[in-house]
Amino acid sequence: MAHDADLTVRLDRSSRIGLPLQIVAGIRAEIVTGRLRPGDSLPSSRVLAAQLGVARGTVQTAYEHLIAEGQLVTAARSGTRVNPALQTARTGRASAARRSGSRAVTGRAMPSHHSTDIAAEVRIDARGVSVRPDPRDEPDFRAAWRRGLDTRDVSDDGCGTQTVRQAIAGHLRLVRGMQVEPADIVLTAGARDGLRTVLNVLAPAALGVESPGFPGLRRALANTATVDVPVDTDGIDPAATPVQLRALLLTPNHLHPHGDSMSATRRVQLLRWAESCGGHLIEDDYDTEARYAGSLPPTLADLDSSGRVLHLGSFATLLGTRLGIGYIIATGPLSAGIAAHRRMLGPAASPLIQAALADYLDSGGLRRRMLRMRKRLAAAAEAVDAAGLPVTQVRGRVILERPAGDARRLRRALAERGILVDDLAGKWTGGQQTGIEIALSSLTSPELTAVLAALRAELSQG
């Protein structure tokens, strides 16, 4: 008969961090260090409460939190256990290194003075290049792909099959409150491909871009002249827009540097600007799904009555970049030209991929994944707050501002521990921020615990 694991959770009743969160952090650490392994049984809430000297409800709250994260599972007969499907962050090379008294990370041995550091045992990419958990591990996603194999809808004229465009329109109606006709949707091979398509048709003499702003889509602007337009707390001010500009690239639902949304007044002003001068607003709606608190503001496209907004979207935030599907919503004078250009290029994705995506959207699989992601990001945000580090949180990202030299040293030190983080200076254009950035969406809970522990250790060394 299996015995319950002995936990070494320690509580600090003088801490401002609540007791349930302290228990959560303690059990997470047990999982990360390997003291708790997948399938291990935990004490009942009654037993652990007695051991820790707390109310049973306190332990139940902590267990429920960890179950929601996927760290623990519970069943009527087997009690509460570490999730058997949980992948530990340890590697075989790290285990071998422990036996030899050193740490192996990315092919190099770590000195023995790091022997107590959790993160030295793992290889963690916290730059947001992937999304956790991998959608391919989810039953909804796999089922959609199996059903996609049976598709008979291959009538893609280059703008996407009718089935997938209807599914995207339905998804946007439910998730973003947008009233979109399937005929106004043009399928693309991602948001950058969508921007290139728009610019090929729009052919602006110059494109106004937010300064400071997110450079993600700007990598598609190699052949387009750009003009930096200042951004204040409400977003781009049309009164400050150079008179020669007739096109602006905007991220109204995620402004630099703190993830705020453009004010309603400024949205109306920009729409009036576009209508009065015959200009266009290219709306990049990136990262909206990562908003885990508060309501979503409307898109510019949904407020537009004159067809001056060209809306770019994709599924990369929820599914990663491997799917390679995005879309343009165009209702105005450029819509016919955009559709014609896309037809000339040919289909953006195979009928099988389009059928699988349509099934995933229609079955509600993507919405369920979005809700799980928001819960996971909210739990991760709580864990970051509980860590008490001098960081700022922005829409599922953790930002630590540091002078450029300190930031480089910190990135190198974390890399030596097996943790890759983003360079904050490279995340925005026109801004003065330097430091590091961590994407919570790319981390499992044990990985986040390891990253926070490593960051605390490095900061304590000055």
TrEMBL record:
Alphabetized CDD domains for the sequence: AAT_like, WHTH_GntR
SMART domains linked to this entry: HTH_GNTR
GO molecular function: DNA binding; DNA-binding transcription factor activity; transaminase activity
Source superkingdom: Bacteria
One Pfam family per UniProt: GntR
Keyword Transferase part of the UniProt annotation: yes
Residue ranges annotated for the HTH gntR-type domain, each copy included: 17-85
Comp. bias regions, Low complexity: 88-109
Residue ranges crossing the lipid bilayer per the database entry: none
InterPro entries (UniProt xref): HTH_trans_reg/aminotransferase, PyrdxlP-dep_Trfase, PyrdxlP-dep_Trfase_major, Tscrpt_reg_HTH_GntR, WH-like_DNA-bd_sf, WH_DNA-bd_sf
Gene3D superfamilies the UniProt entry points to: Type I PLP-dependent aspartate aminotransferase-like (Major domain), Winged helix-like DNA-binding domain superfamily/Winged helix DNA-binding domain
Region of interest (Disordered), ranges: 84-113
PROSITE patterns (UniProt xref): HTH_GNTR
UniProt keyword terms in alphabetical order: Aminotransferase, DNA-binding, Pyridoxal phosphate, Transcription, Transcription regulation, Transferase
Similarity comment: In the C-terminal section; belongs to the class-I pyridoxal-phosphate-dependent aminotransferase family.
Protein name from the UniProt record: PLP-dependent aminotransferase family protein
Organism from which the protein derives: Brevibacterium luteolum
